[in-house]
Specification:
Elements: H1 12-20, E1 32-34, H2 37-47, E2 49-54, E3 64-69, E4 72-77, E5 80-84, H3 87-98, E6 103-107, E7 113-114, E8 117-128, E9 131-141, E10 156-159, H4 160-167, H5 173-194, E11 200-207, E12 213-219
Antiparallel strand pairs: 1-6, 2-3, 2-6, 3-4, 4-5, 7-8, 8-9, 8-11, 9-10, 11-12
Helix pairs in contact: 4-5
Amino acid sequence: MDETLGRQLASKWLKTNALRSHPGLARHIPPTSLYSSAGLRRMLSRHGTVVLKPVRGSGGHGAMKISRQGQGYAFHYMTNTRTFHSFEGLLGAVNLTRRGRPYLIQKGIRLATIDGRPVDYRVKYVKTNGTWGIRAMVGKIARRGLFVTNLCRGGTQVSASYGIRHSLSAGVVGAKKRQMRELTRTATQWLEERFPGIGQLGYDYGIDRNGHIWILEVNTRPH
């Protein structure tokens, strides 16, 4: 029986909490919390840059990036960047974009780049006839001026090898791909124990400028 449709888990918060409860996976999960104004202030103070994204959603829709900038804040949304001198002013822009929807706050990862454009990776893992297997491992390079890499937002798809080679070095291609495969298998086994019935997963990985691999997000309806 083909199980590729499988159970859907829309909540990013549910999946993130499950993954960070695994002792071996926790160091690969960026610090994440549910959105609140106090939480945003605290995360910005602690990490300097954060990404806000809807608890439910895909394709980079609604994603915001905020960075501390001197005494103020830089607010990035789609192709626009605005500067706010007060936290209250920043909150107004965030809440206008959020429109009351539940959001996550995630530490901003300084992704390795190609020609100044962030690159991340999608690993599609599918269960067919009871057996899990990798269907795709690709890189996605952000459109110039954007921080999200989604193809529907103008990102460019490349092979994972190309992305790693040109953002880090040719010497680490094999090791990084192997590590992403291992993380995918470990995380899937952990998630399947907690959410029986899942049949397909799309892992979004980021590799930072020091070469550390982060699980940015997991989707149960990967494109």
